[in-house]
Each structure stands twice: as structure tokens, then as C-alpha cells.
Write a structure and sequence with these properties.
Structural class of chain B: mainly alpha
Number of domains of chain B: 1
Oligomer: heterodimer
Distance between the termini of chain B: 32 Å
CATH superfamily of chain B: Ferritin, core subunit, four-helix bundle
Largest interface: A-B, 25 and 30 residues
Number of strands of chain B: 0
Helix content of chain A: 55-70%
Number of strands of chain A: 0
Order of helices and strands of chain B: HHHHHHHH
Radius of gyration of chain B: 19 Å
Largest sheet of chain B: none
Order of helices and strands of chain A: HHH
Strand content of chain B: under 5%
CATH class of chain B: Mainly Alpha
Helix content of chain B: 55-70%
Largest sheet of chain A: none
């Protein structure tokens, strides 16, 4: 696993926790503990996302365009592929 | 609307090609209990959902299923890289290859192309939620069956993640059904259709 993949893994783990809380809150919208946890993970994700995007390019079309956005690897690529 | 994130929900990195396994796993791309049917099912049903919690739930789970469709596509793509014609023939992948080369196309493991007949959108909240609970279990069984044929740990890792998501979605749909029945007549949930009849 290279450095990019390691950072992507940390980011994905945090994003997954956040998503899992988000789904849970659809059916438990007033659970204050889950809302607080969601806020914590949100801050963590923002930090990791900024780090990732500054090093490896944009994750969403909102922040990226042109060469930066098009840069390999795409999510289904095996690293080094073109 | 939707916007794309240039990442998979869970990493897929398969270095050993296996076209035989790809032909089995592709059923979760375009088969009867696959991710394409799942996302279309929830994203279509949500328009008739009468309560905000259920609109949210179907939107989010339908969106997550699109991410799973992408993961299955990545698995199939990576399992069919750098193949020789001999390997394709030996694995029985020739019947798929002749129509699609190694392009990813929505079919079942049997080769049957994707059809909207795999899903229903009935415009009745109780009917649709029961369909969804069944759909999550059918997908979970399919992933269990895929794991019977999977000896590559890199493939099994991603498939086990997807299997676990079916279980979580089943739980959330069950809660959605409870939220719905809590708002209906406890002596007869089926007296009317809250998505259509204005009681």
C-alpha cells in the first residue's frame, strides 16, 4: 500500500463512520449522542479531505477541473495503470 | 441531483485476474438481486414515500447502492485485466467476451441482461418497504453464495463489506417500516394506502 492508498483508507474509514451515522439518523433523527458523534467525524473528515486533495488532487468536480480532475488513478484503476 | 466522488466507498485492489469469478460476481452488477436494481428500486420508490424519514432513507440507501454498483464494476474490471485468449477460453469467459470483450455490462451470472422486471415500485409504503426488506436479504444470500466460490482474499474482503451493508440496510428498512406502522391504525395497518388515499 503506497502513501496515497494509506491516506485514502483513513479518509474512507472516517467517511464511512460518518455515513453510517447519517443513515442511522434518518430513523433516529433526535438521537443527540449520534448527532454529536456525527459532528466529531465531520471535522475529522474535513481535515483528511483537505490533506488528500492538496496532495493528490480533487475528489469532487466542485473543487477540481481540467488536468487536476482528470489525473490518474481513477477509483477502479490499479495504481500505475494509465 | 447527484455529484460524483472520485473514490470507492471501500477500496478494491485485486491483482490476480480470475475471469471465472468475474462471471459470477457480475450478477451483483446486472442480476436479479444486484446493485443496479437496488438503486433503481429505492430511488424510484422514494417519490411515493409519505414521510420525511422514509424519503431520506430511500434517497440515501439508493445512493449508497450506486456506490456499490461502482465497486462491483471495479471488481469485475480488475478480475478481467490482461487476459490471453487461451485464459478466456479455459475459464468459459468466451461467451461473455464475444459480445462485450472485457467491457462491464449489466447481466446476471446466467448471461440474462438487466431488466426493470427485477424490481417493483408499487406506490404503497408498506408494500414497497416489504419489497426492500426482502431485496436486502436476497442480496445478502447472493453475497454468501459468491463467497463460496471466492478463494482470493482481496476479492473476499470487498464482497464481505458489501454483504455487511445488506444487513445494515435491512435493519434501517425495518426501522422505517416501524416508523410507518406507528403512524397507522395499529388494528389494521392495511386499511388504506397512506401514499395515495387521503384519509
Amino acid at each position: 500500500m503506497n502513501k496515497r492508498e494509506k491516506l485514502m483508507r483513513s479518509l474512507s474509514a472516517v467517511q464511512f463512520a460518518l455515513w453510517e451515522l447519517h443513515l442511522y439518523l434518518n430513523t433516529h433523527p433526535t438521537d443527540l449522542e449520534a448527532i454529536a458523534l456525527h459532528e466529531q467525524y465531520e471535522a475529522k473528515l474535513r481535515k483528511l479531505r483537505d490533506e488528500y486533495e492538496s496532495k493528490y488532487g480533487p475528489l469532487t468536480p466542485i473543487v477540481g477541473e481540467g488536468v487536476d480532475w482528470l489525473k490518474n488513478p481513477w477509483p477502479w484503476d490499479i495504481e500505475g495503470g494509465d | 441531483m447527484w455529484t460524483y466522488e472520485k473514490k470507492l466507498q471501500y477500496p478494491v485492489k485485486i491483482t490476480r485476474p480470475n475471469p471465472k469469478l468475474a462471471q459470477i460476481i457480475i450478477t451483483q452488477y446486472g442480476g436479479p438481486d444486484g446493485e443496479l436494481g437496488a438503486s433503481l428500486r429505492y430511488l424510484s420508490q422514494r417519490f411515493a414515500m409519505p414521510w420525511a424519514e422514509l424519503k431520506g432513507l430511500l434517497t440515501d440507501i439508493g445512493t449508497e447502492e450506486l456506490g456499490h454498483l461502482e465497486m462491483i464494476g471495479a471488481i469485475v474490471y480488475q478480475l478481467t485485466r490482461n487476459l490471453s485468449v487461451e485464459e478466456i477460453e479455459k475459464a468459459g469467459f468466451d461467451k461473455y467476451f464475444v459480445d462485450h470483450t472485457t467491457g462491464v455490462y449489466p447481466v446476471a451470472a446466467s448471461g440474462a441482461p438487466f431488466t426493470a422486471a427485477y424490481l417493483q415500485s408499487k406506490g404503497d409504503v408498506l408494500t414497497d418497504l416489504h419489497e426492500n426488506l426482502a431485496a436486502e436479504q436476497k442480496a445478502r444470500t447472493t453475497y454468501d453464495n459468491i463467497l463460496r466460490f471466492t478463494d482470493d482474499p482481496d476479492v473476499a474482503d470487498a464482497i464481505k463489506f458489501l454483504r455487511a451493508r445488506e444487513v445494515v440496510h435491512y435493519q434501517r428498512f425495518g426501522e422505517g417500516l416501524r416508523l410507518a406502522t406507528d403512524r397507522l391504525n395499529s388494528k389494521n395497518f392495511y386499511a388504506f394506502n397512506p401514499s395515495f388515499d387521503k384519509k
